[in-house]
C-alpha cells in the first residue's frame, strides 16, 4: 500500500517502509555565490576603518561560508582578512574551541553561521570574544529565520525567510563548496 503525506515544506513518499524526500530549494549554488559577493561588499563598506577583519565561522557550515567569503572580501578591502573556526555543540553549547588561536584586540570580528534559527549558537559563540577587546563584533548568516529565542540580530543576511516552527532549513555543502539551501 502506498500513502502520501504533503506538507508546506516537503513531500514524503512512503513505499515499502522507505522514505523519498523531495527538497524544496530556496538557494542554489549560483544564488549563494551572488549572496556572498553582496555580503562581502557590505562588510567592506561598513568597515572602512578596520585595520584587520577576522571571519569566524561556526563549524561546520559556517566555516565553509567563511572560507568562501575570504577571497571575495580580500578583493574589496585593503586590510588583512583572516579566517578562524569556532567549534561548539549547537544543541548544548559549553566549551568553545578556536582554530587557530587568535588575538581579537582592536579587530573586527564577523561571526558566521549557515542558518540563524533561534540565535542560540551565535549567542553562545560570543563567549569566545568577550575576554578580548575587539573593535566590533558583527554577525553574518546565509539564511535567517524569524523564530528567535535569543537576542541576536544578523548584521549581514543572504536570505531572510519566514517559516513555521515545524519547518527546517538545511545548507548543503560538498567539501568546500556550498551547493544550496533547502527547506523541509
Describe what you observe in this structure.
This protein has 184 residues and is an alpha/beta fold. It has one domain: Rossmann fold, CATH 3.40.50. Helices cover 22% and strands 39% of the residues.
Secondary structure: elements and pairs:
Elements (H helix, E strand, L loop, with lengths): L2 E4 L4 E5 L2 E5 L1 E5 H18 L6 E6 L2 H16 L4 E7 L9 E3 L8 E9 L3 H6 L10 E9 L11 E5 L8 E6 L2 E7 L1
Parallel strand pairs: 5-6, 5-8, 8-9, 9-10
Antiparallel strand pairs: 1-2, 2-3, 4-12, 6-7, 11-12
Helix pairs in contact: 1-2
Overall morphology? globular
| Quaternary structure of the protein | single chain
Question: Can you tell me the residue ranges where pLDDT is under 50 for at least 5 consecutive residues?
Answer: 1-17
Q: How many strand units? A: 12
- Major sheet: size, sense and barrel closure? 6 strands, mixed
Domain count: the total is: 1
CATH fold type? Rossmann fold
Q: What is the name of the CATH architecture?
A: 3-Layer(aba) Sandwich
In order across it, which strands form the biggest sheet? 7-6-5-8-9-10
Overall pLDDT metric: 86
Return the string of H and E elements: EEEEHEHEEEHEEEE
Please give the share of residues in helix: 10-25%
* CATH class group: Alpha Beta
Q: Outline of this structure?
A:
The protein is an alpha/beta fold and 184 residues long. It contains 3 helices and 12 strands; from the N terminus they run E-E-E-E-H-E-H-E-E-E-H-E-E-E-E.
Task: Please supply descriptive tags for the structure shown above.
Rossmann fold; 184 residues; 39% strand; three-stranded antiparallel sheet; six-stranded mixed sheet; 22% helix; alpha/beta
